[in-house]
Amino acid sequence: MNKQAITFLSLFSLILVLSVYYIMLPPASSLDQDITVSEKESETYDVAKMQEELDAKREEEVADSNAIISSASSTQSEVTEALEEIEQTKEARDLENQITTLLKDEGYANCFVELSQESIKITIHQAEGSSEDAAKIISLVMEKTDGKYVPEVKFVSE
């Protein structure tokens, strides 16, 4: 036999063996029904969506506090605490809006601000964020909040 015939028979037998193997495999749907596949979406920074989520979170906090206030079984201290939480939520929302307005006035039109316990998370949609821009934003926020919060600036370009 010549080289071409041996090569042909070798490749043909390999294809035949693989075909039989794949035919004998059970269908993918009957392998394991308990397998769950989760896909993590890449982080997208849509200011409107982020703002809606934050507003929903704030509204839920206020609704929970209102439920405590309206409950007949709530004690006076629970009602007082709920009123304080509502006031803190309102103050946080107002400060976020003030900082957002301040940043928009400075030329950062597409920005998102979220206030947490000790920090202010600022997301700026800008193609190229420089350290000078970050320093400017940090100084503006520190001045506005009298240094009560630590600003965290993040530039995204999506």
CATH superfamily: Stage III sporulation protein AH-like
The biggest beta sheet reads: 3 strands, mixed
Measured on Cα atoms, how large is the radius of gyration?
A: 30 Å
Order of helices and strands: HHHEEHE
Measured by DSSP, the beta-strand proportion falls in 5-15%
CATH architecture: Orthogonal Bundle
N/C terminus separation: 63 Å
Q: What is the arithmetic mean of pLDDT?
A: 83
CATH domain class name: Mainly Alpha
CATH fold name: Helix Hairpins
Number of helical runs? Answer: 4
Helix content: 55-70%
Give a written overview of the molecule.
This protein has one domain (46-156): Stage III sporulation protein AH-like (Helix Hairpins). The protein is 58% helix and 12% strand. The chain has four helices and three strands. A three-stranded mixed sheet has the order 1-2-3, sandwiched between helices. The model is unreliable at 34-42 (pLDDT under 50).
Topology, pairings included?
Blueprint: H1 3-24, H2 47-70, H3 76-105, E1 111-115, E2 119-125, H4 131-145, E3 150-156
Parallel strand pairs: 2-3
Antiparallel strand pairs: 1-2
Compact description:
The chain is of the alpha+beta class and 158 residues long.
Which key phrases capture this entry?
alpha+beta; Helix Hairpins; elongated; 4 helices; 3 strands; 3-stranded mixed beta sheet; 158 residues; 58% helix
